[in-house]
């Protein structure tokens, strides 16, 4: 890997409404410490990550104040109403040393089980392809439901992927794509979608299915189990 070390933007400004806890899910306890600490620990341990830009909600009183982890700088900024607003704020806040042409990673605070070797593979492959994302091909039969919740149609599963993070793009190109989506009033659910909308075709890099996004309360038990099995 000849690329210079990359900064990683970590959107952590969500409210965790689907979990429904007494605080945003990134601060709920997972295997003895706040979920976000697991995520940041894994990212900072990756030898090719230079620093972390954690995007917090305005007035976040639960953030630990961490400023360094495993010798890497940890900076914070304030996010926005949607995940895409938070990612754009994170990109804008990256240090000046990150040029527009440099790659940056984006990884959800809510994905604590990411494997270091998947990050390495993403960096290796996506840097040669002008950007990409971790994901996994759909393995189940895919149904389209009608409004009554009945199966109306079986969709082809070939060429269908689930999108994970990290996602990796050049800082300037991703910022421009996110700004364009905002101007067009499109709420993009991931960085790759913003890039697709301006004509790019991000590389899909297959990653482990256990890189789950903690989304509901039931995901905590699964994440705790997976954390112990995905240490590298
Ligand atoms: N305005 C937002 C919304 C989400 N996120 C972050 O984006 C990641 C993925 O979002 P999601 O799982 O949807 O988190 P929440 O928005 O917190 O969940 P919910 O929709 O259940 O409220 C999380 O790390 C979340 O903190 C963010 O930084 N800013
Ligand atoms: C970026 C993402 O994690 C890819 O799966 C996801 O789109 C973000 O979660 P959300 O629930 O759509 O906000």
UniProtKB/TrEMBL annotation:
Record InterPro entries: IspD (IPR001228), IspD/TarI (IPR034683), IspD/TarI_cytidylyltransf_bact (IPR050088), Nucleotide-diphossugar_trans (IPR029044)
SUPFAM superfamilies according to UniProt: Nucleotide-diphospho-sugar transferases
Keywords: Isoprene biosynthesis, Nucleotidyltransferase, Transferase
Annotated positions for site Positions MEP for the nucleophilic attack: 157, 213
Site, as annotated: Transition state stabilizer: 18, 25
One MF term in the entry's GO annotations: 2-C-methyl-D-erythritol 4-phosphate cytidylyltransferase activity
Pathway of action: Isoprenoid biosynthesis; isopentenyl diphosphate biosynthesis via DXP pathway; isopentenyl diphosphate from 1-deoxy-D-xylulose 5-phosphate: step 2/6
Reactions it catalyzes: 2-C-methyl-D-erythritol 4-phosphate + CTP + H(+) = 4-CDP-2-C-methyl-D-erythritol + diphosphate
Pfam families according to UniProt: IspD
Top-level taxon of origin: Bacteria
Entry's family note: Belongs to the IspD/TarI cytidylyltransferase family. IspD subfamily.
Function in brief: Catalyzes the formation of 4-diphosphocytidyl-2-C-methyl-D-erythritol from CTP and 2-C-methyl-D-erythritol 4-phosphate (MEP).
Record's protein name: 2-C-methyl-D-erythritol 4-phosphate cytidylyltransferase
Source organism of the structure: Dyella ginsengisoli
Gene that this polypeptide is encoded by: ispD
